[in-house]
Design a protein that fits this description.
single chain, two-stranded antiparallel ribbon, about 220 residues, about 70% helix, 7 helices, mainly alpha
């Protein structure tokens, strides 16, 4: 059994905020809650509030703890000790993002003028900045990091790929923060383009680096 640590306590505390908020204002919430929103910020999918509470609460509490469990079953579990603090920062940051999303959906359904698109883009942008800032510290694992056939095959390729991936994530994070204040269609194209670059460049780079290492051998 994995022992509880300080991060676990903080995750539970942060996760409890929207759950308590939901229960306090349960009677004021509509039976069918808006849970998904289009590019223009208008709701396009609804869900019963009981199922919303059950599903989102489970997701909110389970997801960060699944990440904790991953390190126990990862064949490269020893590597987590080399970036333990970074891993805990990732878990907590994810918990804050999920809790914030849950909270803002509740507030929107209570009638507050919440701009869901603004919150979503700002939240993702900040998460990308955090990930990018710490990416160079991640060591080879099967559950976190830029996992391509070539980074997993060679530690040097992993290290070099994550060094270039960190700045890419941070640039994309800044783009999301700026895009949060732009018109919907512009936001979609801008964010999609930079997401593609952030995914494609490390994949191609890791392949090229692996070929170089292979050539030296």
């Amino acid at each position: 059994m994995t022992k509880m640590n300080r991060t676990d306590g903080l995750i539970i505390l942060v996760s409890a905020i929207p759950i308590i908020l939901f229960l306090v204002f349960f009677g004021d919430l509509p039976d069918q809650m808006a849970v998904h929103f289009g590019v223009d910020g208008s709701p396009n999918r609804y869900q019963g509030k009981i199922s919303f509470l059950l599903i989102f609460s489970l997701f909110l509490l389970a997801y960060p703890f699944l990440f904790k469990g991953f390190r126990k079953i990862d064949p490269k579990s020893e590597n987590y000790k080399k970036f333990g603090r970074t891993y805990e920062i990732f878990r907590f940051s994810l918990s804050v993002l999920l809790s914030g999303a849950f909270t803002f959906i509740i507030l929107y359904n209570l009638g507050y003028p919440i701009n869901i698109q603004l919150f979503t883009l700002l939240g993702i942008g900040l998460l990308f900045l955090i990930i990018g800032n710490y990416m160079g510290q991640i060591r080879p694992t099967y559950f976190i990091g830029i996992r391509t056939p070539w980074t997993m095959a060679n530690d040097e390729v992993w290290r070099k790929t994550h060094r270039i991936g960190g700045p890419l994530f941070m640039v994309t994070g800044v783009v999301f923060l700026v895009a949060a204040f732009l018109p919907g269609p512009v936001t979609v194209w801008l964010c999609s383009f930079f997401l593609f670059i952030t995914v494609a460049v490390p994949v191609i780079f890791s392949y090229i680096q692996f070929k170089k290492v292979e050539g030296k051998g």
